[in-house]
Amino acid sequence: MIRTSLILSFVVCLCFSLIVPISFGQDAGRRIETGATLRGHIVDISPQQNPIEGVRVEIENTNGEIFTVYTDKEGFYEKTGLAKGRYSISTYKKGYGSRTGKSKVVSSGGEGYDRIKMRKTETLITFLFKQVFTWQLIVGFAMGFLAALLLNSLHTRSEAR
C-alpha cells in the first residue's frame, strides 16, 4: 500500500514537472511589445480617394520630440517603437495643403490608426487652366478669330473692287 502510494506520488510529480515547464515555455516564445505603433492611410479628397505617395508625416509627442516617416505608394505610413503617450500627427507634401490631425493617445504595446484626407492646392496657373480657360472658352475664341479673319478678308475684297 505504501509502495503503491509512493509510486503514484512519483508519477504525479513527474507529470506535474512536465506540464509546468511546457506552460511557461509557451510564454517564452511570445514577442513582448515594448512600444506603441501609429499607422495611417493618406488619400486625396476626390471621390476615388486616391492614395498619396511621399507624404512627410511628422509624429510629435508632448515633449516636443518629432518622428518623421513617409507614405508608401499605397499611401500608408507606420511608426513603431513609440513610448506610450499623446501624439499629434501633421502631414506635408508639395502641391497639397498641410494638415494637423487630432491627437492620438497610445498605450505601451498599443496601436493608433488615422485616415487623413489631403486637398491639392491651387496655383494661379492651375486655377486659370481649370476655372477660366475652359474648353468652351478656347473654342469660342478660336471660332471668333476665324470669323474675324473671314469677315476681314471679305471686307478687303469688297474695297479692292
Model description:
This protein is α+β, with helices and mostly antiparallel strands and 161 residues long. It contains 3 helices and 8 strands; from the N terminus they run αββββββββαα. It is 39% helix and 30% strand. The strands form 2 sheets. Strands 2, 3, 5, 6 and 7 form a 5-stranded antiparallel beta sheet that branches. A hairpin with a 6-residue loop joins β5 (85-92) and β6 (99-100). Mean pLDDT is 79; it is low at 22-31.
Provide the descriptors you would attach to this structure in a database record.
161 residues; alpha+beta; Immunoglobulin-like; 3 domains; five-stranded antiparallel sheet; three-stranded mixed sheet; 3 helices
The CATH class of the largest domain is Mainly Beta
The CATH homologous superfamily name of the largest domain equals: Immunoglobulins
Beta-strand portion reads 25-35%
Number of domain modules: 3
Order of helices and strands: HEEEEEEEEHH
Biggest beta-sheet profile? 5 strands, antiparallel
CATH topology title of the largest domain: Immunoglobulin-like
In CATH, the architecture of the largest domain is: Sandwich
CA-based shape: rod-shaped
